[in-house]
Fold this sequence. Notes:
Layout: H1 2-32, H2 39-70, H3 87-107, H4 111-131, H5 135-163
Helix pairs in contact: 1-2, 1-3, 1-4, 2-4, 3-4, 3-5, 4-5
Amino acid sequence: KQSTDCSKAEILSIYIRSLQILQSSISKLYNLKNLSIPPTIRTAVLDLGNALQPKYSSIFQKTDSFATSLKNSELTSSTMISGARPIEQILYETATLVGREGALDELFGTSGLSFQRYEVSIVLLEYILSLCKEEADQKVLIRFLQVFLQRKNEIAKKLMAEGS
């Protein structure tokens, strides 16, 4: 049973890492557009960034589905990967890291990436909250969720206004 749980934890970790890599790549591509580069190269860079967006969305959907399927499994805080930290701790650290990256993206004006990063953080925190039994931990998770949801909603409004 534990080997199955470890596999599930590893799969979720791989999905999350894939999202982080894609976000980083997309962010770097969009940051290149601000450099003084020839228009043809700028267009190619933006096209590549736009081509990565559907891949990001696909992996995000898979991660969300997989995390949802784990909600009813027996993966708990006591489930360890080779004696390492509990998966919830790893997911929490990932969620807060991605959320901080979202805040930085927001500061630097890359609203689309910021929105995506907040989405990832929210999914991870909701999953952890679904497993959490300690009231103090639940309060901390809810506070982070509220902040990330508020920022995501503000960015969504901004993106909709820009699109109008």
